[in-house]
Amino acid sequence: MTLNDAIITSLEEIKTPANYLDVYKRIKEKNYYDFKDAKTPASTVSALLGNFIRNRDSRVKRIPQKGGDYTYFLTKFESEISIEALESVNSIENASASSLPVTAGNRSFDERSLHKLLSSFLNSTGVYSKTIFHEQSNSKDSHQKWIHPDMIGIRFLNLHTQTSLAFLKAINRLGTFELTAYEIKKEIKTDYELKKCFFQAVSNSSWANYGYLVTFELSDVLMDEVKRLNQAFGIGIIRLSSNPFESEIVLPAKYKDLDFVTIDKLCKINPEFERFVEQVEKYITADAKYISALNKELANFCDPFFVSETESEAYCKEKNIPLDNPVEENLLGNFDGSKYH
Question: Residue limits of the HTH HARE-type domain (predicted)?
Fold first, then answer.
């Protein structure tokens, strides 16, 4: 039996979500694998469990736990895991986390520090993005926050000739760009959190061509419900990574026409949103000779972004944003991977 097989067999027998130490102990008790050549056998099991997730192995899923740890289970047992039980665990964790200071050790970080990661990912896909601060709006009604997206973005249609672009503008200027709204969350662990965040994204993106819910951590046990909500309401899902260039669109958003009444309302109450719309209008109505200058002007107005992984990693360390499985990655050097294939 390979160590991968031993891990799967152990999870099969344990049935309920288990951490890497539980899996390691089961392997040892049953003598499924001889660890004589491994310097840190428990860490080896932890690293390989992480590999199942990174390699998108359909057999294994995980649940985030307090302190950045995870419990693992087999996908076929997913229906037996109680959402209520997960909510209870998360309530305890959230209460504990609220009493801790903001340090790199407990991995607490500000949600808005994720904006630069998202802007970097969007820039790499040809989208200009801008943070919209709801507290800067003229309206003092707290309920108006549900009309504000966290970030907005625009992608311009890239035609190869100025002639074809001018022709498209003459027919329909709306066809030359797409506006997107983004709702950003640090983590979504429970069914309740998912529905609350999802319908906030629905409300905040009602005016845009596309709406996305962006999250740094999304519990795998929620994916069936995420897919159902995506199909029903058209909101897409982006999973954000500490390396922004490895972020991914998990589910694409569905296109809809712009709602100019809501756009007008947002322009009235939020000057930053109004400035963004002004920049877009200048860009799409300008003559070709001004496009280069306006492109630079729009880029300077929009959010900054990273151009390298080194920059983003340093930023994440500064902002206490956990790097994606850094410990597990380092542990891979403790054993000879060729033995497990």
Answer: 1-77
